[in-house]
Amino acid sequence: MEKLEFVDTADGSKTLFHREVGEHYHSKHGAKQESLHVFLKSGLQFYLDKENTTKASILEIGFGTGLNFLLTADFANHENLTIDYVGIEAYPLSHQLIQESGYDQFVDPVIWNQFCKIYPEALLKSCSFHKEINLTIPHQQLLQFQSDKKFDLIYFDAFAEIHQPEMWTIESLSHIRQFLNPGAVFVTYAITGNLKRAMKSLGFSIEKAPGAPGKREMLRAVLLEDELLA
Fold this sequence. Notes:
single chain, alpha/beta, eight-stranded mixed β-sheet, three-stranded antiparallel β-sheet, 27% strand
């Protein structure tokens, strides 16, 4: 896949650069740092503390290289969390490319080896990943996604709006909203006026949280419970 190549980021972790889109899959200021800060610390840990729970159902928009899932699974493994993880991906990476990421150095070998083993299967169905962790990677466009599940947390990791504007529309965000539980948390690395207005119109409370390296702020939003009745 010549249009995709791994490049080093500032924290020593790699990310993919998509030549046709002109975008990196993760921050060039540090792929691992961004994932840990935006999605684990500001997303998962925030939700677990808010709800005083050890369980979470996560919907990721843009599964990509699997970095967010790997770090989440590694954290869940060490903390004995129950995680149901669904990562939508319209253009799944090849099994070979997934294994070339170098992310094995950041997670327990058990987590890495299991990920490499079940990745092809998870593109087709829900898989029992490890302990109390399940993984599904629907091979679909966002607006095609349907599910009977309700989610507690959204990892919104689409390409930037300038490169993939269709992912950031009110239509796309509204489609995601229907799959959320009361009090669900939405986190993404970006924050813009349009995004804040859209999320508020969909019944979310908005917070400007500190951003990952290279970004001053990021967006965290919580779905107000009474808005689910609207």
